[in-house]
Amino acid sequence: MIIGVGIDLADIGRFDKMLRKKDDLLIERLLSDNEMPAFRALTGDRRRAEWLAGRFAAKEALMKALGLALPEGIGMRDIEVMPDRLGRPVLALSAAVRRQLDSPCTCHLSITHTAATAGAIVVIEREVRA
């Protein structure tokens, strides 16, 4: 059963400007320790901005699908966007975020980009028990 759907768009140019300003604080607030190596491995400011905007959109889409703002004590670093074994982006949630869900759920994620915008959609699905 679907219990939540969230979508978000992020302006890639905004992230490009932040990266050019060397706004490391933004990166540290947005990315987890597990996400940081993938970000640092990217070459080129434009590609880094696209990637960062996509991660931001994915995390915002999850919060919208959950139907809540980030509760006290939970930050963007508690939501990870990591590649699965095939390279597809998947969400990994910290214990604090998982506690916000009433029961175990599956989160489906899709990220897309245009020249100017990164977009993400998240669908949260709960198993129906008979």
Automatic annotation (TrEMBL):
The protein's required cofactors: Mg(2+)
Gene Ontology CC terms, in alphabetical order: cytoplasm
Predominant subcellular localization, coarse grouping: cytoplasm
Coiled coil: none
Keywords: Cytoplasm, Fatty acid biosynthesis, Fatty acid metabolism, Lipid biosynthesis, Lipid metabolism, Magnesium, Metal-binding, Transferase
GO biological process, one term: fatty acid biosynthetic process
Pfam families, per database record: ACPS
Subcellular localization(s) per the UniProt record: Cytoplasm
EC numbers, comma separated: 2.7.8.7
Function, as annotated: Transfers the 4'-phosphopantetheine moiety from coenzyme A to a Ser of acyl-carrier-protein.
Protein family: Belongs to the P-Pant transferase superfamily. AcpS family.
Name under which the protein is recorded: Holo-[acyl-carrier-protein] synthase
